[in-house]
Design brief:
By secondary structure, the chain is an alpha/beta fold. It has three domains: 221 residues, 3-Layer(bba) Sandwich (FAD/NAD(P)-binding domain); 144 residues, D-Amino Acid Oxidase, subunit A, domain 2 (D-Amino Acid Oxidase, Chain A, domain 2); 153 residues, Glutaredoxin, CATH 3.40.30. 32% of the residues lie in helices and 26% in strands. The chain has 16 helices and 28 strands. The strands form six sheets. It has a seven-stranded mixed beta sheet. A hairpin with a 5-residue loop joins strand 16 and strand 17. Helix 1 packs parallel to helix 4 and helix 1 runs parallel beside helix 7. The chain is globular and about 75 Å long.
């Protein structure tokens, strides 16, 4: 674990959720860093509310998931109304999708920042508040940055690496000369966090779709408090966000939608704004990176902005740690932009489509939309697919330059074995959280995520469901992994209640006595899966071949 007393290897600019996650992850991977933010403290505005399932999986590794769960509210659905009738009701459904967090949480961004800042403090690192980046340049060995503190005093710092998590107006992105391609939406937005007394359930998002604009209500984690958002086709000025005006407007809008009983009061945050959809041309320039809103911004539809940025941080931190320690080549860092920029583009495309569908003005197009929306809730598979996309559990890196598989094919391993292996997780996929059940009287992990937790790559070496006793390939893999002891933790996955005596295995053994792991990973025959520190599959092979595994490891590691 890195501490404040260590010489900083990385300067993180921006201490929102993305920057704080980045600093926490760097510290957890043993990389000392500094983190600066021009604001005096965490935001006192709710801002980003939704915490998605994949982000909760990240927070488990970061070490803050229990605190987030304790404060947040679970949401279970979405309802849309038009012309006085409900046109859609979709249940947020992630059951059976192999995540320990099959739900959407609502927690104001300010609380998320407080929780992450406390975690960072436990690593011995404090956010340097009231400090902004004024200028920066980079050369071969590192980055020079000019920081200005709250009193206006400037200081020069020199670090090997710099990461801009400094928002949509990113100083880092501009200093690097990165493009920020995209456009502004023509619609205006009016927002208010209020107390709301009405009859809608507090575990659902409610939307009213009207010809003159959309009106959406998001429940808060506090009972009786809601965020109200008006999407307007007309101009909205800053003066319109004056609290008393906002309360009166939203009160009238609710009455128009048939909620005469609704009472709006006690606004704590109001804002009028426009939104953009933009993405940086690349996320890395030399020794500098951008993440979160500094790299991509989009419509808030679906609540994915903060979550996408947090996962940027989770993707980059382990790679940068390996390079800083000298365990991996600098080229590994190119995979950050190669993996995360397509994800950002996908989010931009999806949220843009959702925004345009919701904001339809043509009466015929609206009628078609409303009819189709009424059908969505009638098909469970549609709700599950939508939930998986929004939760970001479906994010994959199959086209990444650092993922690979070696599959022997049916002529080499047999038709049944090859077919089962093909159906297992593929390189670039998120590895699912499989429940484990150790044999009676045996201690062991109860979930696969417990095995994967940590900062190393994890190698799962499967004995195979039909038990062919051929120790040579297993022991060759064992000898290879021994050379990477500080980088890889290898587990032999035994197919029964005891470790196979014919394999001289030195590391930990998972007793898969019910066969769940073998089934989930298509391991009819001996095979292996290498899981990256971010929980994505980097490499898999059937049959076992230490030579091919060594070839892959040379792409990721040095020496």
């Amino acid at each position: 674990m890195a501490t404040k007393t260590d010489t900083p290897e990385v300067l993180v600019v921006g201490a929102g959720p993305v920057g704080l996650t980045m600093a926490c992850e760097l510290a957890r991977h043993g990389v000392p860093c500094r983190i600066v933010d021009e604001n005096p403290g965490p935001t006192d505005q709710s801002r980003a509310l939704g915490v998605q399932a994949r982000t909760l999986e990240v927070f488990e590794d970061v070490g803050v998931v229990d605190e987030v769960l304790a404060e947040a509210r679970k949401l279970h659905g979405f309802a849309a109304f038009a012309d006085g009738r409900r046109i859609a009701h979709v249940t947020y459904d992630l059951e059976g999708l192999e995540t320990p967090y099959p739900f959407l949480l609502i927690l104001p961004q300010g609380r998320t920042e407080h929780i992450l800042a406390e975690r960072l403090s436990s690593h011995g690192i404090e956010v340097e508040r009231g400090t902004k980046l004024q200028a920066m340049t980079q050369d071969g060995p590192g980055v020079s940055a000019t920081l200005v503190d709250a009193e206006g005093k400037a200081s020069e710092v020199r670090v090997p690496w710099l990461i801009g998590c400094d928002g949509a107006r990113s100083v880092v992105r501009k200093a690097l000369g990165l493009s920020f391609e995209g456009a502004e939406y023509e619609e205006s937005f009016l927002l208010a966090d209020v107390k709301l007394d009405w009859d809608r359930p507090e575990d659902e998002i409610t939307a009213f779709l009207a010809p003159e604009g959309q009106f959406i209500a998001f429940p808060f984690h506090e009972p009786g408090r809601w965020r109200l958002v008006l999407v307007s086709f007309g101009p909205v000025e800053a003066a319109d966000a004056e609290p008393s005006k906002v309360v009166a407007l939203f009160q009238a809008k609710l009455h128009e939608q048939g909620h005469a009983e609704a009472v709006v009061s006690d606004p704590t945050w109001t804002s009028a704004f426009r939104i953009h959809r933009r993405v940086a041309g690349q996320f890395r320039e030399g020794r500098c990176f951008v993440a979160g809103d500094a790299a991509h911004i989009h419509s808030p539809a679906g609540g994915q902005g903060m979550n996408t940025g947090i996962q940027d941080a989770y993707n980059l931190a382990w790679k940068l740690a390996l390079v800083i320690r000298g365990d991996s080549p600098d080229a590994l860092l190119d995979s950050y932009s190669a993996e995360r920029r397509p994800v950002a583009l996908g989010v931009i495309h999806g949220t843009d489509l959702a925004t345009r569908i919701v904001a339809l003005r043509n009466p015929v197009a609206r009628a078609v939309r409303d009819r189709l929306a009424s059908l969505v809730g009638e098909f469970d598979f549609v709700a599950r697919r939508l939930s998986k996309v929004l939760s970001e559990l479906d994010v994959e890196y199959r086209r990444s330059p650092i993922v690979l598989e070696d599959a022997g094919g049916p002529l080499r391993v047999g038709v049944a074995d090859a077919h089962a292996f093909h159906a297992g997780p593929r390189p670039g996929d998120r590895v699912p959280d499989v429940p484990l059940e150790p044999p009676d009287g045996t201690d062991g992990p109860l979930r696969l995520f417990e095995v994967l937790r940590g900062t190393k790559h994890v190698l799962l070496v499967f004995e195979g469901a039909h038990g062919v006793e051929a120790p040579g390939p297993f022991e060759a893999v064992r000898d290879l992994v021994r050379e990477h002891a500080g980088r890889i933790e290898a587990h032999l996955v035994a197919r029964g209640d005891v470790a196979p005596p014919w394999i001289a295995w030195e590391g930990p053994v998972l007793l898969d006595h019910l066969g769940e792991l073998h089934r989930h990973f298509g391991a009819r025959g001996p095979c292996l899966y290498l899981v990256r520190p971010d929980g994505y599959l980097g490499y898999r092979a059937m049959p076992l071949d230490a030579g091919k595994l060594a070839d892959y490891l040379r792409r990721v590691f040095v020496g």
